[in-house]
């Protein structure tokens, strides 16, 4: 009986050790380094340093702007795609497989793919030249064409990250009882009324999970931006990388990491509070 009582703790012990070694310890270490200056004093010196850096505000603006544009677009696209998939009788698995192919592609590989398409002598310019739309290859990915560069990153991120939102929403739609939709039809509700009054409210837990996950990933965007924009489009993660490996300033890099975490916590709290998922639906 004694062994039976301790069995659950034995089973979760490996997971706790893993979390402690690879999450809790690095988390504490990052916090300690963020609030410890190079001369050993505890304070906000590292945060002051990154705040005074000329790339701080551009990187913060670019990160928040990317998140604010990409995440809503991905949510709308994923809802539409999920609705299409759930209504299909034939070819559903094939279409879903094709749409989720980007899930198997790393961030860096996705950046290389879109770089090959959008660079000055890439596939897009070659095609536009072949059909006489442009006379000479255009340079889309530089600071002189900031809007085109931002749009390129948005398109690449939407292509790369919509699949994870789609998978979550398709799973959520599969849990909605068909009786609710059938009852709406009996009472004369139109398709759009059933969508707004039945499907989307019932899908709220999945939407909340998808928004939290995708927002966290969007705040940590790095490889795609580095491949397409490089230093012409700084983001918070690229600044973290530069301070750690280029400038060899671990404290400043840790301060950026803590800043990203704080923004993530605030946005996650916003989703949890204002999406207001009922307890019975959690």
UniProtKB/TrEMBL annotation:
**Where does it reside?**
Cell membrane
Q: What keywords does the record list, in alphabetical order?
A: Cell membrane, Membrane, Transmembrane, Transmembrane helix, Transport
What stretch or stretches form a coiled coil here? none
Transmembrane intervals: 7-28, 64-84, 96-117, 147-170, 211-231, 251-272
InterPro entries xref list: MetI-like (IPR000515), MetI-like_sf (IPR035906), UgpAE/MalFG_permease (IPR050809)
The record describes its membrane topology as:
Multi-pass membrane protein
Q: Which residues form the ABC transmembrane type-1 domain?
A: 60-271
* GO cellular component labels: plasma membrane
Pfam families attached here?
BPD_transp_1 (PF00528)
The primary location reported for this protein is membrane
A single Gene Ontology biological process assigned to it is: transmembrane transport
- Gene3D superfamilies recorded: MetI-like
Would you identify the family this protein belongs to, as annotated?
Belongs to the binding-protein-dependent transport system permease family.
> Can you say what this protein is called?
Sugar ABC transporter permease
Query: What is the organism field in this record?
Result: Cobetia amphilecti
